[in-house]
Write the structure tokens for this entry.
Amino acid sequence: MASIAHELAKKQKEISISEFFEKNKHILGFDSLTRALITAVKESVDNSLDACEDAGILPDIFVQVEKVANNEYRIVVEDNGPGIVKKQVPNVFGRLLYGSRFHVRAQRRGQQGIGVSAVVMYAQITTGRPAKIRSRISDEDVAYECEIILDTKKNRPQTMKEDFVIWEKPHGTRFEVNLRGKYVGGKQSIYEYLKGVAIVNPHARITFIQPNGGNVVFERSTEAMPPPTNEVRPHPEGVELGELLNMAKYTEAKKMTSFLNTEFSRISLRVAREILDAADVPHNQRPSRLNLNQAGDIIDAVKKVKIMAPETDCLSPIGEGLIRKSLKNVLGETKASFYAPPVTREPKVFGGNPFIVEIGIVYGGQLSREDPVQIYRFANRVPLMYQQGACATTQGIENVDWRRYGLEQRGGKGIPYGPAIILVHVASTKIPFTSESKEAVANVPEIREEIELALKACARKLKTHLNKAERKSKARVKFEIVQEIIPMIAQKSAKIVGKPVPDIAGTITKIMNVVWVDDEVTHNKKKTHRVSVKLYNYTPKNQKLQLHMVLPYEKVDEKSLTLEPSEVRDGTKVTWNMKKVAPTEVFELAFDMKGLDGGDYEENEVFVSGIDAASVIGADVLPGDWDLEHITITEEKAAPEEEADEGEIDYDEGAEVIENEE
Amino acid sequence: MASIAHELAKKQKEISISEFFEKNKHILGFDSLTRALITAVKESVDNSLDACEDAGILPDIFVQVEKVANNEYRIVVEDNGPGIVKKQVPNVFGRLLYGSRFHVRAQRRGQQGIGVSAVVMYAQITTGRPAKIRSRISDEDVAYECEIILDTKKNRPQTMKEDFVIWEKPHGTRFEVNLRGKYVGGKQSIYEYLKGVAIVNPHARITFIQPNGGNVVFERSTEAMPPPTNEVRPHPEGVELGELLNMAKYTEAKKMTSFLNTEFSRISLRVAREILDAADVPHNQRPSRLNLNQAGDIIDAVKKVKIMAPETDCLSPIGEGLIRKSLKNVLGETKASFYAPPVTREPKVFGGNPFIVEIGIVYGGQLSREDPVQIYRFANRVPLMYQQGACATTQGIENVDWRRYGLEQRGGKGIPYGPAIILVHVASTKIPFTSESKEAVANVPEIREEIELALKACARKLKTHLNKAERKSKARVKFEIVQEIIPMIAQKSAKIVGKPVPDIAGTITKIMNVVWVDDEVTHNKKKTHRVSVKLYNYTPKNQKLQLHMVLPYEKVDEKSLTLEPSEVRDGTKVTWNMKKVAPTEVFELAFDMKGLDGGDYEENEVFVSGIDAASVIGADVLPGDWDLEHITITEEKAAPEEEADEGEIDYDEGAEVIENEE
């Protein structure tokens, strides 16, 4: 037995990171020939976009894929970025785990220092050929060009050739590599990847020369760079105990107060003192003396003390307006009947990293009713093409009971069916990908939860749209019948018995016994939208209600308002205290909105309060504290929550169900 | 601009592998508190099992999970393995990418040199505490015990404390760690993981002390170790050009012939010469002189020359018998009505690595008809608990059109619905996991293809079962009616016209015009199975057919055979040349099978040939060359293939569809 332990000991040795990935190239996204080619383009284009944005340059990216032999392609990716200084070129392209963005807490596409070096490695494994890089920085007259391979035993670049060459480009980088792969069309293709890049990077121009020579240009649709994103310090929420101890060990701060204040975001000196008091740690203690118990107490104190949400200037969401425009632009041919107003949520935090979730839903038109909905996934403005099933965005979609929102879904679990496209974008200073191939967001509970809330918020708008037309027309028919037939009966009866026709308004209200809300948006050519909300009191008593709408209030022409709102919250949540409405009377609220494009505001979101849900038709009752995520659709029969939970698809993760031992 | 390039250059630096994973702990399986706890147990138990098997010891594993504080647990995993020599303990537990199995081409659970060190790192990040390891090798009197942490800046272990202690165990290793986590029950739990381990490792005893003190023992069901698996050299199929060049550079062989012969499996000197001739490379050339073109030619030549399939002694599949027993054992309470005979395929190769796929299907009983089928996934005898959606096994299941095999499936794509459990096991000298957390098999085309073939082979047996009972009883009813009514009509008519009753056998055959095959298996208490196949010729002409069955021929009692088979292929594919059967006559084949357990042979697989499919009822026509994967079920209306392919679920990968440019 001892000899076995010694025998085994002899075999135990270090594994170089590049040997590891050489044997596990599928982890890097090279698991099939088709995917290898897409991964190679993706890694290089992501790098180019990051470089341009770091330098504040509008990206102009050139991509060429050329067939060299059966299952062998040459890929060229060229950008107009700032270039890379000569000394760093081999390291950037020929060494795994080397880069500029890993230690930075900021929204970038690349974060691992692996991507493009992995392409170089895969290329040399499969074709035996080096990669060729050319780079010029703007204060040099010439470009530096070299051929490198990655020595996988040492994880170091090896320069095979180098030279200075004339290049007409004032600055930029060109990456050229031969690799084994397979070029395909269809949904998972280089073309679709570049189209996705164009959707979420409207400031980039992308030129694509296909293997058949075909030339596609995705023109930029804006000359404005996205606002630059700043580096941030970690937000204290979710920082782990071991990390805190480590930070305390290496900080330059001399006291605990300044340590917390300088190393974290959103901790002012006042908040720092508050945390330390709650944790019973002296303000002046040297951070390096922080012990395990104290660190634990600080972690607990952070949860109790009120700390501001993270800064948003470190994140670059696509934005609601742009999501809608991009979707309309790209999906024009589907003639979709409804583009749900996109949702961009407030930033949240996981493990100290701020993140934002954005959702867009497109419905109807020529989208297939028989197939599962299409899912468009993006992370930090990069389209995710593979591993849909492993992605927190997909799991979020699977966890929502879409039957409540008008889509078909067996058992209320899984990817729903119906004529819809769901777009999900996660932006963060740190995207927790499930692997180095960066194709799926890990199932971090904080992120999945936000995705689900965002999906529900957007789905609610879809449901509102689907319900509204139908239930309004039904209600109208009912009212028309009652309003025509009862007066007729009254007249007939009066005639028969020879008495005057009685006032039957009261009778009608007794029969109906509801408040009916009817709203509409009309737009004219001058880009003015006219909004009208009418409230018919068909109950036998006076009604004094509040009317609520969700809309961009800055677009409301205040002069046109027939009633001043009593409150405008967050610029979008507007409340009107209505005057008393007597039985059979009507109240109308109307106003104009200006400066909107045709499709920007197509449907009102109307709520009422001061009445029970069963007594109102045509609008929902506002949930407490504008809690719109948890609104219940009352008039359509929704499947009860319990039934939905029974569906036992084992869609991974998310199983934090029972604490067995308690 | 130049200043930007220089500015960026300053930020570019190396990232240590442990810093990388410290920031990307979700990649290692620590993305949620629940999963963190399962991952920690999984990594340590996998290590323990590997160690025991390396030493030929029947594993006796002890697992304890204990609640320490809110969301903090202590995990202890103890084994009776050979122990680890003192000098290696810190490296094995406190250093990422360090281990004994990475450079070995053999079927092992651990292959990356990451797992258990990652647990140590996660523990210290979340609780600030070191891991405690005790290990004793059998020629030492005492055990070595130490507390270590992993210095993430350097990726080196740091020993905090060490000592020698008395330990009653003669040899073994004990691993103890405190970490942040959450203990849950349900489908994704430590209990279910250990149960899965027990299913596929019947030689292991596992004791589990739960946080509530509850004690579960999974007893071993066999005292026999699985046959030891050998290391193998790479199989030449799928070796990449760059790898070949690298191997040629580092080999000790002096000539190309001996290089190919010694560095690869299944290349004899004769085959080596054949390859070199086909590639036009001199036999005596020094391998180090191999150039790019020559290497490419050798790769091409390998595809042309006939090379034996890989050795199987490097793999340890579960085996058909054990799969059935384990499933019956564990799933007894479901009272399933059918356990399809499991399928263990022949080994195949991807990128030089042999692998085997195994499938089991359980159907009926109390399994829910309303839910998606349950999927049990295993890789190298380890249950896979997470990332089902990303796994090639799941994608294989989604790609099969299960409507052809009796399960419900919308559009013929996606996870089917119905009362079934599908077990998939992939065994390989190298499992290509999608990430370091080892929870999903990457979508390597060779593997996914094998999975689909294996699934179809097993599903066919399910379909046979489902169809058989039903169609036989239908056919019987039809025959009985015809055989009763026509003679009655004949008698009546004869009576009326006063003529003798005609012979109507010929008339019946004209009406029916089919060959009817009826088979059954009966078993008695002596474990003898009696098999009978009857063939009724209800056609108007003589039939001379061949009868084929799939069964374990070594179990057939040859003395009992009423007809000698004309061929037995692969020990399972048996053919009988039947004598001529005249119209209205019956042919019967019967024999006994011995040495089988009650459930081992429950249903015959019968085929015929020498007749067109439309003219036979009760058996399928054998597809050409026993191509059972591609058999068409003729009598039940199967959905046409084209329709199935239209379902456009975008289940990742697998999109190698069109070569656009050609």
Notes: Chain A touches chain B through 127 residues (CB under 8 Å). Residues 632-662 of chain A have pLDDT under 50 and may be disordered. The longest helix of chain A spans residues 445-497. Residues 125 and 339 of chain A are 46 Å apart (CA to CA).
